[in-house]
Recover the amino acids of this structure.
């Protein structure tokens, strides 16, 4: 196997380039400490700022120590005196509150029962007829009707919508929640139901 040796000019140029590179690196590292970069300038301002804050902290620590020493000299009697006085006042207040609570008798507030309107005994096989009887005397909200019917809110809403669309009830939209009152057509239907129930 034959190995070809390159020309001496090529070898010299590679060696020369290597030496120039080493010389450049050496020169850069020697000159670098004398060149101030922007980051070094920022570091200098930050170090000045840190020194300022350090001096402030030392000064505050000295003042705090001086205040503690003065406080200890002034309060040589009992360091927990204020705490004891506070606890005594608190205990007195608790005793007074207990006496006040014991002297007051609890007032009984009568519960207001949910009133359901009294209606003549009718067989309300149809919720429509029952609702019409409910609102004959006074206007009612759908919530009142729901409680009286003991049905769900959705069921009551659908029923009232159906009655409104049939013209049996009138919806008052000026107040919230809506109130429902009976119309002439509804009164006529109630009359029919009552005559039918008395006949049967």
């Amino acid at each position: 196997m034959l190995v070809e040796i390159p020309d001496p000019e090529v070898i010299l140029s590679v060696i020369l380039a290597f030496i120039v590179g080493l010389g450049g690196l050496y020169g850069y590292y020697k000159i670098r400490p004398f060149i101030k970069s922007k980051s070094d300038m920022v570091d200098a301002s930050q170090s000045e700022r840190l020194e300022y804050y350090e001096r402030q902290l030392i000064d505050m620590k000295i003042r705090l120590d001086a205040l503690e020493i003065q406080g200890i000299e002034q309060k040589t009697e009992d360091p927990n005196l204020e705490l004891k006085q506070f606890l005594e006042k608190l205990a007195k207040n608790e005793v007074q509150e207990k006496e006040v609570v014991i002297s007051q008798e609890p007032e009984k507030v009568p519960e207001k029962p949910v009133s359901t309107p009294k209606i003549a005994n009718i067989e309300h096989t149809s919720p429509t007829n029952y609702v019409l009887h409910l609102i004959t005397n006074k206007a009612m909200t759908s919530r009142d009707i729901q409680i009286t019917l003991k049905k769900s809110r959705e069921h009551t809403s659908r029923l009232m919508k159906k009655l409104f669309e049939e013209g049996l009830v009138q919806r008052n939209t000026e107040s919230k929640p809506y109130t429902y009152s009976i119309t002439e057509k509804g009164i006529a239907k109630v009359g029919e139901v009552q005559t039918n129930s008395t006949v049967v």
Notes: The helical segments are 8-31, 38-74, 81-103, 127-137, 142-149, 153-166, 184-199. Strands lie at 140-141, 169-172, 179-182. Residues 114-123 have pLDDT under 50 and may be disordered. Residues 38-74 form the longest helix (37 residues).
